[in-house]
Amino acid sequence: MTTVIDIDARGTQHCETTALGVLLRHEGIDLSEPMLFGLGSGLSFIYWDNKNMGFPFLGGRVKPFDLTRNLATQLSLELLVQETVSAGRAWENVAGPLATGRPVGLQLDSYYLDYFGSKVHFGGHIVAMYGYDSDSAYLVDTEQQGGAVSTTLTSLAQARAARGPMTAKHRSFTVTKPGNTASPHDRIIPAITACAATFLNPPIVNFGCRGIEKAGRLVRTWLQRTDNPQQDLPLAARLMEQAGTGGALFRNLYRDFLAECTQLFDSSHLRTGHRLYTEAAALWTEVAALITAAGESGDGENLVRAGSVLGDISRVEHEAMQSLSRLDDTSGSTVRTDPATQTRSVR
């Protein structure tokens, strides 16, 4: 038996926005990947290290699935999330929606997927499933993983059942567009200001602007933090530039989101935020290059320079988020919509 839904299997850069794009286009909502990322308030930062980790981790987005929840809330979508410890029930949770013609999002460990070239455990990976037959599941993953791909049902079951950091219990989800769905245009400013508020006021010093500043201090010690700098440092840099981040630790995606917003809203705060995130994205790419060079050469001066650049990034992103946070300050400002251009002016 074969069940395959006709979908737009457009592969993009980041796994969660790729899967969301598939599900939303099936509901008639077609948004760019940067817009999905921005509406989901996806940008963040975390510096994480503990005695159980082989090497420090730099993260540039909110934790897995928070973006999906944020986006569903912003657009007033019906998000049905199912989790279970039963493999049989987990399959029913997927097969049921597929039988009715609805694609399903899955959170799983990418290590077990047949088509994944890099065998690294990551329990926060998200894909869209649009069909299956007696042997294989048909998925949509990122462009770099092949877009529309397939994996054996056995490997899919292993990936969904995996336990460890960032995993979920056979999590599957569907998205439905109700009749009163909020206009994406109307939810852009709330999404931006919510992201800025969290970034500027992190719960601990490892997050947000303070986390970037902390990373700037600690990255200088990374040669002493590892027994294999030739492997660990270039890998850390690749995770920043590749690994579904869209480049520059997700800053390219947020830069492009803000660029789209400046075409929709006439706002000096938005233009400032876009200019500064353009600068930040370039600086993140520079940091990745310096970390790679330090690992390959063993020269700690590269890490000193990386730390200095991270200090600059912390200041740039702080200024950008301060500007973006002012978008919800409507005191003394006017908001107008030009019917000809649908461009809103926000001072």
Summarize, please:
The chain contains 12 helices and 12 strands. By secondary structure, the protein is of the alpha+beta class. The chain folds into 2 domains: 3-30 and 78-176, Cathepsin B, Chain A, CATH 3.90.70; 184-346, no CATH class.
Shape: globular
> Secondary-structure element sequence?
EHHEEHEHEEEEHEHHHHHEHHEE
Measure the end-to-end span: 58 Å
Contiguous uncertain segments of 5+ residues: 330-347
Helix content: 40-55%
Largest sheet: 7 strands, antiparallel
By DSSP (H or I, 4+ residues per run), the number of helices equals 12
The quaternary structure here is: single chain
Report the mean per-residue pLDDT as an integer: 92
Beta content? 15-25%
Compute the number of structural domains. Answer: 2
Number of strands: 12
> Which structural class best describes the helix and strand composition?
alpha+beta
User: Rounded to an integer, what's the Rg over CA atoms?
Assistant: 21 Å
Tell me about this structure.
- This protein has 347 residues and is of the alpha+beta class.
- 47% of the residues lie in helices and 16% in strands.
- It has twelve helices and twelve strands.
- Strands 1, 4, 5, 6, 7, 8 and 9 form a seven-stranded antiparallel sheet that branches. The protein has a three-stranded mixed sheet with strand order 10-12-11.
- A hairpin with a 3-residue loop joins strand 6 and strand 7 (136-140).
- Helix 6 (184-200) crosses helix 12 (301-325), helix 7 runs antiparallel to helix 12 (301-325) and helix 11 runs antiparallel to helix 12.
